[in-house]
Fold each of these.
Amino acid sequence: MPAVTLVLFTVCLVLITALAVAAVAGKLARLDGASYPAACLRAATAFGAVVTLAAAVTAALAAVLP
């Protein structure tokens, strides 16, 4: 498998996962009684956390693997 294909597949997988986590976080915030702006803020925070975690894991693996 070419490296570009693997990178694009991984980026798509991370973004889909981040969007799913953000949607669930926003829905849970609304069910908890938060306003729409507060729910959007929680969803955005969850999205950013997933993307940041993926970047940190990638950096850690890049440092360990040759």
Note: The chain has a mean pLDDT of 95.
Amino acid sequence: MDHFAEETTMNDGLLDELRKWVLDKHPELEDIDIDLDIIDSRIVSSLEFISLLLFVEELRGEPLLSDDVQLESFRTLRMINDHFLVR
């Protein structure tokens, strides 16, 4: 069992969708650790960040509030999951 599978909780499907979105943008990657900083590692560029926000809104089924959109909350898949996808 990989690190990703061991660490997921109630919303495995949403986290899988988020992971797939990132991997689809980077076919050179086979996998991504949920604790990898996707901003510092440039996996998500500043141009892709808006697309990421929109995708998270789609997964949630509701818009993000402007107060919720802080770069620190989007650094890793785990942070995105914990802040926006777990209900």
Note: Helices lie at 3-7, 12-25, 46-60, 77-85.
Amino acid sequence: MTALVVGTVLTGINHGDGILAGDYPPVVKIILTYCVPYCVTSWGAATGKLAQYRDNQAKVVLHEEVRR
């Protein structure tokens, strides 16, 4: 959803004047405009989940050490 919104905004900013004039940019450029925010969002979600997993693992180890 983020990529859809951000990609549309970026397309409007980067290519809006040309689109309004009837000159359409290459499709590859439009696709890349949507792919970049998708990749950034996916990377952020993945690294956030990894950090959460590592934090949970550290808490488990700490809890086990306290129990000993």
Note: The helical segments are 2-20, 27-67.
Amino acid sequence: MNRIILIVLWSAVLLLQGCSQVPTPQSRADTADRLVGGHGWKGYAVDGGLFQLQAYGPATRDPVRHLRVYIEGDGLAWISRSRPSSNPTPITPIGLQLALADPTGQVVYLARPCQYRYGLACAPEYWLARRFSPEVIAATGQAIDRLKQRYHAQSVILVGYSGGAAVAALVAAHRSDVSALITVAGNLDTQLWTQHHSVTPLTGSLNPADYARLLHTTPQWHFTGGKDAIIPPLIVGAFAKRFAEQAPLHILTLQAYDHYCCWADQWPQLLSMTGLTQLLEDY
């Protein structure tokens, strides 16, 4: 990434954390454990083939018809403007916070490869240039198969935050059991995103915009922040232009929101005011 964007990203992370040094991977995992502890959720590994992915979900395994899977953002990809992170576990797991804020209950959270669980296949390329590679998408899809089995679900609704939105869209494009796709501050056109910020292309990654044709009949809701300088609304706007006017696609821009604020805090209200709470309960 170029220096300007890295400074913006890292400054925002430090501001949110109110700290002067990077928390260890274990302390970041402890943060997630504390978040889920008060909700009766527990963490467990999900087999994704090449990667073992971390999931958090309700301790009970009551069968659900449509399982809502929240996919985390890119996490801590960079330590500084020139130094990649050695572990992408997020400092502030906004995808997890969104999942915990979901009021409907038929929810599970899925981390990205190498977040929380660091295996032999983990290498920086999988949270840098190849973060949306075919093997990452395949591993996520396999993990979702396991989650469906665990909760006896017939279909899934995918919810992706930031880079997790790209993963969710790419997974959805290759499955027939996705009832809906919801994204928050989503990177849905990675080529345009790298061009916009004048950074190195994500060589080895897939671009969700290139697979839009496979999502024309999938109901979609995309939330963007009017003040989001990291993934501005124009990225989602470009993705939307790939669809016919009659496609079941909805874009909701919150002018006062940026990339971090205030998605998790206001998530129940956002779902309610857009009619998604009732719609998702009806699925």
Note: The longest helix spans residues 134-151.
